[in-house]
């Protein structure tokens, strides 16, 4: 069983950038799809980005495509989310997750979740 810990969130002005990191412990992530989701209080958790275990394929929510980039470093047991051109609508708690599937955008197909990191974008 693994544990995931996100970091890198904070307060940023619209148009700015943040890089989130998710460090796994307990076991390697090298066989897992890794994903990022986000959630606004009172709303459902939504898919943001995912990447296959070998970084061959990436998937993105349409609203972030071209602005966000997911990447991973299996040797460091870490996945990243580079977020550029942030806007107010990106404000949410961002969660890292791991899945046994090759790649998926569905939250219930992820098995392990971090506790989240807050991203707040001001106008």
What would your notes on this structure say?
By secondary structure, this protein is mainly β. Helix content is 0%, strand content 50%. It is built from no helices and eleven strands. A hairpin with a 6-residue loop joins β5 and β6. The N and C termini lie far apart (40 Å).
Give the topology.
Layout: E1 3-7, E2 10-13, E3 18-25, E4 33-39, E5 46-51, E6 58-60, E7 68-73, E8 78-83, E9 92-99, E10 112-113, E11 117-122
Parallel strand pairs: 2-11
Antiparallel strand pairs: 1-3, 3-8, 4-5, 4-9, 5-6, 7-8, 9-10, 9-11
Keywords:
123 residues; mainly beta; seven-stranded mixed sheet; four-stranded antiparallel sheet; 50% strand; globular
Percentage of residues assigned to helices: under 10%
The topology string of helices and strands comes to: EEEEEEEEEEE
Distance between the termini: 40 Å
- Per DSSP, what share of the residues sits in E-state strands of 2 or more residues? over 45%
pLDDT averaged over residues: 97
Instruction: Note the quaternary state here.
Output: single chain
Described by strand count, sense and barrel closure, the largest sheet is: 7 strands, mixed
The shape is globular
Low-confidence stretches: none
